[in-house]
Specification:
CATH topology: TIM Barrel
Number of strands: 12
Helix content: 25-40%
Largest sheet: 8 strands, parallel, barrel
Number of helices: 10
CATH superfamily: Divalent-metal-dependent TIM barrel enzymes
Radius of gyration: 20 Å
Number of domains: 1
Order of helices and strands: EHEHEHEEEHEHEHHEEEHEHH
Distance between the termini: 41 Å
CATH architecture: Alpha-Beta Barrel
Shape: globular
Length: about 290
């Protein structure tokens, strides 16, 4: 049984002082990016470490450029390994994308070309990363707005082949899937059919921004999660076959901690309802 269940929240800078002052965690777990902690100092760093020493935490990386070609620096890998050990994170996740080239960082999660060469390259990188880590490795599906080069397969096939080839876990980002389904015109539930849901260890859920003039949804993490995204989460949870942790992300237009926790609570209710047993009507009830 996964010890991390329920709906957690991404730990963000505006809330650090308030969360650090609490005597216990207001959420089942926090998620944090090692890049925002390792090598830092000062009062914010002390607040983060106080929270991480007290509360359950899951780590999620932002900048390893898993689909890229730049070699990882040894000190970066050593620092990451040490951070994962310190926080006792059950796994570590990165996006299935590339973020840098030739030592230059784009600060964007750029999509992979959906080709067999790309599958082989990314599988090799994932296996290399897994060998470096003291915990299991997960890939997150990303939002994208245009395909990179001529595709040899669908995104669905590409992602499934990478997961299977790398033999790694899946961080299923529900909002990214919803955004892609709207922007590229496919059914999100059909996309999930036949995917290796047994590899899902965690899920992300977030808000997005709809640009009506351009008929485009952007994955901004800057708004409350909409009902269709919550409903998609609730639809897929029982199909995974076991409770997995869901992480509420908010990275822009960050509300107060109280508002964020209230949203978390509403998503938690949908999470709990997804696993509630379906009542069986008696014969008498059927007659009525």
């Amino acid at each position: 049984m996964n010890p991390f269940t329920g709906v957690g929240v991404g730990l963000r800078r505006p809330h650090l002082e308030q969360v650090a002052a609490l005597t216990e965690s207001p959420v089942p777990f926090w998620e944090i990016a090692p890049e925002n902690v390792v090598g830092q100092g000062g009062s914010r760093h002390r607040q983060v470490m106080k929270i991480l020493e007290r509360d359950p935490v899951i780590t999620h990386g932002l900048s390893m450029s898993m689909g890229g070609f730049d070699e990882w620096e040894r000190d970066v890998l050593d620092n990451l390994r040490g951070f994962l050990t310190t926080t006792r994170s059950p796994w570590h996740s990165e996006h299935l994308c590339w973020t840098s080239y030739g030592g230059a960082t784009t600060h964007e999660l750029l999509p992979m070309p959906f080709t067999r060469e790309s599958v082989s390259h990314t599988v090799a990188r994932a296996r290399q990363m897994q060998a470096e880590l003291p915990v299991p490795f997960l890939f997150e599906n990303v939002s994208y707005y245009a395909e990179l080069g001529a595709a040899e397969m669908s995104e669905k096939q590409f992602f499934a082949e990478v997961l299977e080839g790398a033999d790694c876990g899946w961080l299923l980002d529900i909002n990214n899937l919803y955004v892609n389904s709207r922007n590229h015109g496919f059914d999100a539930k059909e996309w999930l059919e036949g995917m290796p849901l047994q590899r899902v260890q965690q899920m992300h859920i977030a808000g997005h921004t709809w640009f009506e003039e351009d008929q485009l949804i952007i994955d901004t993490h800057g708004a409350a999660v909409i009902d269709p995204v919550i409903e998609l989460m609730a639809w897929v949870l029982p199909r995974i076959g076991r409770p997995v942790p869901v992480l509420l992300e908010r990275d822009t237009d960050i509300p107060t901690l109280e508002e964020l926790l209230a949203e978390r609570e509403s998503i938690q209710k949908a999470y709990d309802a997804a696993f509630a047993p379906v009542p069986i009507l008696g014969v008498g009830a059927l007659r009525d």
